[in-house]
Specification:
The complex is a heterodimer of chains A (about 200) and B (about 200). Chain A has 9 helices and no strands. Chain A has about 200 residues and is mainly alpha-helical. Chain A folds into 2 domains: about 50 residues, Homeodomain-like (Arc Repressor Mutant, subunit A); about 140 residues, Tetracycline Repressor, domain 2, CATH 1.10.357. In chain A, helix 5 runs antiparallel to helix 7, helix 5 runs parallel beside helix 8 and helix 5 runs antiparallel to helix 9. Chain A is elongated, with a radius of gyration of 19 Å. Chain B is mainly alpha-helical. Chain B has one domain: Tetracycline Repressor, domain 2. Chain B contains 9 helices and no strands. In chain B, helix 1 crosses helix 2 and helix 7 crosses helix 8. The N and C termini of chain B lie far apart (about 70 Å). Classes of the chains: A mainly alpha (about 200), B mainly alpha (about 200). At the A-B interface, helix 1, helix 6, helix 7, helix 8 and helix 9 of A face helix 1, helix 6, helix 7, helix 8 and helix 9 of B.
Chain lengths: ~200, ~200
């Protein structure tokens, strides 16, 4: 991969990649800009040409991680309109990706603790709102075909599902070895009973 | 304002309370021991008489928060004889507690990035696992009594139940009001989940 980095364009990406590894290993406080520069094989000065501060670099890292995770979510979804199947597949994709990329999962969890700052909070809310919107669209289709209870509060349930994504990442980042010993199936363990409960009431 | 000399235990409590406010407002990294000392109305050297460092304070904060919520939830659950109603009560109690102690629960979650360090790491996992054991036990109890269907895997169901509970803490930590604006909607989802394991009425042994 490193061979592909040009003098300009990809330099920024190169810094972000090094920063993901450093922040995941040592957390925000522990990873210095010097560590990141060394890992990227460039000088500290060069980093500051792209990012005004360590904080700004962290924001760029977080955005990169979130968008990577999200773009991965919608990959290889089963050819079905069925809401339950799709929702379970999304959760499995999500868990598989975070198990394969524990560094990214850690950064997501770290962003929870950064949510105190209002600016970041709004940023996270906007990111999640988009995801909740995607899930709402799937739910509306499910209500139409009768697999979901039409009485369900669509926006509320969509948020619950988005937050369940967080729960999986959190559990993994905490070092749980019980639920996570199931690997990707852990996603189905969580989702199946919950999704079954959303069916129309008899 | 003359600084009063408080007994050590009281002083520790007041530092923990100050840390809660400070963490909830500033996040983990931006909250320094100097901020905590200032919020507690003491000097840093006094703070260091009671705690080794920020992580030591956070460790106590965690312990304190967990003991407090466990006591509250347990008290409410024990009022229910029916274990399925107990599970419902447990979720409702956690909802009520989180809503009433938003900054405590937020501070608790904000210390998560430091999981990698020493004693802090195990505590959230242990909390999750204890909750899992309690929930599985209650469902098994309901199965023995014939009020829950016996085919359900209690351990798997407990994880699903826990994920629906834990999203409350996570939303709170992220500063999202979403799940808290409609308690009825939340409890309706919990009722739906519990209905999937309830034995059909009239089928009691």
């Amino acid at each position: 991969m490193a061979a592909g980095y040009g003098p300009r364009g990809n330099r920024r990406q190169q810094i972000i990649d090094a920063a993901i590894t450093a922040f995941a290993a040592k957390n925000y406080d522990g990873a210095s800009v010097t560590d990141i520069a060394n890992a990227a094989g460039i000088t500290k000065r060069a980093i500051y040409r792209y990012f005004a501060s360590k904080r700004e670099l962290f924001y760029a890292v977080r955005n990169e991680v979130y968008s990577t995770i999200v773009s991965n979510l919608w990959k290889e979804l089963p050819e079905t309109e069925d809401f339950n199947e799709l929702a379970e597949a999304l959760m499995r994709n999500h868990l598989r990706f975070s198990l394969e990329n524990p560094g990214m999962a850690r950064i997501v969890v770290n962003t929870i603790s950064e949510a105190a700052t209002r600016e970041l909070q709004e940023n996270i809310e906007a990111l999640l709102e988009e995801r909740a919107g995607d899930i709402q669209a799937l739910m509306r289709a499910g209500k139409e075909d009768g697999s979901l209870d039409p009485d369900l509060d669509t926006p509320y349930v969509a948020w619950v599902i988005v937050l369940m994504f967080f729960f999986l990442i959190y559990t993994q980042a905490c070092g749980d070895d019980w639920l996570m010993s199931r690997g990707e199936d852990a996603a189905s363990v969580l989702m199946k009973p919950f999704l079954a409960s959303l069916a129309p009431r008899p | 304002m003359a600084r009063k000399r408080l007994p050590a235990e009281k002083r520790k409590q007041s530092i923990i309370k100050a840390a809660e406010r400070c963490l909830a407002r500033k996040g983990f990294y931006n909250c320094t021991t100097a901020d905590i000392a200032a919020a507690a109305g003491i000097t840093e050297p006094v703070l260091y008489q009671h705690f080794r460092d920020k992580n030591d304070i956070v460790d106590s904060l965690r312990k304190h928060a967990i003991e407090d919520i466990s006591e509250y939830v347990t008290k409410r659950v024990l009022k229910r004889k029916d274990p399925l109603e107990g599970l419902r009560e447990c979720a409702e109690a956690i909802f009520d507690y989180t809503l009433r102690h938003r900054s405590t629960m937020r501070a608790y979650y904000y210390s998560i990035p430091e999981l990698g360090k020493g004693g802090l790491r195990r505590s959230p996992v242990e909390r999750l696992h204890r909750l899992h054991e309690a929930v599985s036990y209650m469902l098994e109890e309901a199965q023995r009594m014939g009020i829950a269907v016996s085919e359900t895997d209690a351990s798997d169901f407990a994880w699903s139940y826990i994920s629906l509970v834990e999203i409350l803490y996570i939303a709170n930590a992220l500063g999202l009001d979403v799940p808290f604006v409609a308690k009825d909607t939340y409890m309706d989802l919990m009722d739906r989940l519990l209905a999937t394991v309830a034995a059909p009425s009239g089928a009691e042994v």
